[in-house]
Design a protein that fits this description.
This protein is 41% helix and 13% strand. It is an alpha/beta fold. β5, α5 and β6 form a beta-alpha-beta unit. α3 packs across α4, α4 packs across α5 and α8 packs across α10. The protein is globular, with a radius of gyration of 18 Å. The model has no long low-confidence stretch (mean pLDDT 97).
């Protein structure tokens, strides 16, 4: 069976995320290690780190994934924002090391008019600076983006160009977001389309680089450039699309993290249940 989970809140303390993941029925889960909407963060208290590690050790939930906050933009041409973005990336890699979290997911950001090549160059420099100072074995995962205006990382070729500039590629992988891929024009609705997308991914990036999947349906149609997540099976990829995705051995072999809504239609446990149903059908 697949290993599936959701993004979990750390409200109260980071250790409480483990219990929330268990309650939702997670085999794996993702967190923000800090407030994702601000620049400042409190240092991790030793007792919180110990409590998180102890709670996790009592479970079979693996792996835990951390996600970068919302504000950093490593593709920006604005020097002040860029420096804060690099510093945040460095800090978050260290927080992952301390917490024992193996993967940190990052978006590649936007270049507001500077051009895709300049944006990529800024991302490459930011990643190289951060990985050069990082201790431990934390892997930085580059997440594909949804094809929005001035975005970096919406195509496999774009991600490959960034990877080619990274000086420590062994510390780098990819997080594949199904909503983002579909919005960027990669069709995931049929068995043949999924096979073609993964063959293209393998040819350009390499499947060995694919470490984590963000499993999200989408409120935008194919190629819309709209980054709006939807419940599994209720969006434009649809139930049949996810049935094909979840029968594919490439996807089945990776940790699957749902970043889906919580509303009157379905909660986190409900999306996990749908994923398991479709994966087993």
């Amino acid at each position: 069976m697949v290993r599936v989970g959701v993004h979990v809140s750390i409200a109260g303390s980071i250790a409480q995320s483990v219990g929330r993941a268990e309650k939702a029925g997670c085999d794996t889960f993702q967190i923000f290690s800090r407030n994702p909407r601000g620049w400042a963060c409190k240092p991790l208290a030793e007792e919180d780190v110990s409590a998180f590690r102890r709670a996790l050790d009592r479970t079979d939930i693996r792996p835990v994934v951390d996600h970068m906050p919302y504000l950093p933009n490593p593709a920006t041409p604005k020097d002040d924002l860029y420096e804060k973005s690099v510093e945040t990336l460095m800090t978050e890699l260290e927080r992952c090391r301390v917490l024992g979290i193996p993967y940190l997911v990052t978006h590649l950001g936007h270049h507001p008019g500077a051009g895709i090549e300049e944006g990529r160059a800024r991302v490459i420099a930011a990643v190289n600076r951060a990985l050069d100072t990082a201790e431990g074995d934390v892997m930085l995962l580059l997440e594909n983006t949804a094809g929005e205006k001035n975005g970096v990382g919406s195509t496999f070729e774009d991600i490959r160009a960034v990877i080619d500039g990274i000086e420590l590629p062994e510390k780098t992988g990819v997080c594949f977001d199904t909503c983002h891929a579909f919005a960027a024009g990669y069709d995931l609705r049929t068995e043949d389309a999924i096979r073609d997308v993964l063959e293209r991914f393998n040819d350009i990036i390499g499947l060995d680089m694919l470490k984590v999947v963000h499993l999200n349906d989408t409120k935008g149609d194919l190629g819309s450039g709209l980054d709006r997540h939807e419940h599994i099976g209720l969006g434009y990829i649809g139930r049949n699309g996810f049935a094909h995705i979840l029968k594919n051995e490439v996807f089945r072999a990776r940790p699957l993290i749902c970043e889906t809504p919580v509303d009157e239609r379905r909660d986190d446990a409900g999306n996990i249940a749908v994923v398991r149903e479709l994966a087993g059908s």
